[in-house]
Amino acid sequence: MRTDKILIVTDDGPSSAKAIQYGFNLARDLGAKVLLLCVIEPAMTIGDPDAGLFPDDVLINLIAKTKDFLSRMKIKYGTAVETEIMAPVGDIQTTIINTAVDWNASLIIAGTHGRTGLSRLFNGSVAESIINHSPVPVCVIPIKSSVVGS
């Protein structure tokens, strides 16, 4: 099995940098292409019309900020790696799995915050959900770890 297309799943938080860096290092070592994906949850685009924040404007702004974040990560970590970026709106787990299938990914790389207890109960685990539903291998990078790929 050849790993030639790596889907790196991220959010726009600074803690995601470890998973992004690991994914790009692996892609560089393997000569693989990368799709850097950040899924925008629909609930984040509701806005507040009473405050002058209309849903369409919030969505446009959020997509622009997310693509800017992805572009910065591509520049910072993706040297010499063929990279696409995507910032679709949708259910996170479903969008990740569908994107992996549609893009024909060989591997998904995702970070995990390592939540436990009530935080995990209320916030869930995107990484665990991906592992349980993915048709392709998944590599989970613990965000709290100090080890990052070559």
Strand order, sheet with most strands: 3-2-1-4-5
**Beta-strand percentage range:** 15-25%
Largest sheet: 5 strands, parallel
Report the structural category. alpha/beta
Shape: globular
Can you count the helices? Answer: 5
Uncertain residue segments: 115-124
CATH topology: Rossmann fold
- Could you give me the name of the CATH homologous superfamily? HUPs
Rg, rounded, reads: 16 Å
CATH class: Alpha Beta
Whole-number average pLDDT?
A: 84
H/E element sequence: EHEHEHEHHE
* CATH architecture call: 3-Layer(aba) Sandwich
Task: Please report the total strand number as a whole number.
Answer: 5
Number of domains: 1
Which characteristics define this entry?
150 residues; alpha/beta; Rossmann fold; five-stranded parallel sheet; 43% helix
Folded structure, characterized:
This protein is an alpha/beta fold and 150 residues long. The protein has a single domain (5-142), classed as 3-Layer(aba) Sandwich (Rossmann fold), CATH 3.40.50. It is 43% helix and 17% strand. The protein contains five helices and five strands. The chain has helices spanning 17-30, 55-77, 92-103, 117-123, 126-133, and strands spanning 5-9, 33-37, 83-86, 107-112, 138-142. It has a five-stranded parallel β-sheet with strand order 3-2-1-4-5, sandwiched between helices. The radius of gyration is 16 Å and the shape is globular. The two termini are 22 Å apart. The model is unreliable at 115-124 (pLDDT under 50).
